Amino acid sequence: MLKRRHYHIDDIEYCVLCTTQEEETIDHLIFSCQFSQHCWAKIGISYNTNNSRIEATIRAKEKISSSHLFEIFTIAAWNIWKERNNYIFNLINPTHNSWIERTKADLNWLGYRVPTDLSDYITSIVNNL
Ligand SMILES: [Zn+2]
User: Which residues form the Reverse transcriptase zinc-binding domain (predicted)?
Assistant: First the structure.
């Protein structure tokens, strides 16, 4: 975001979720980072990082036939972002267990807002995390 707004940034900001020394871009952080890939796998989504972000999302949607894929995606991505921010602002190392607990809590809240059949589906995702 800072680069897009032409702020001067001295050093490349590296991803804090992995040890690959990859530049922290949205594509890396949310889709191709080893940490994120592990998170996506936990909820049954695998992103082919050779595809464009849109193509990868379309392929992911084929695997999760839920009308609430967008909400599930948003919760998972939001919690990846929170793991990153927890390190940046609080120096707390990101862990998959922390991501799982945050994601479970948010998915449980989502489960209260959807019809019973979807609630059951969301509960099954939570139970498999
Ligand atoms: Zn990374």
Answer: 2-40
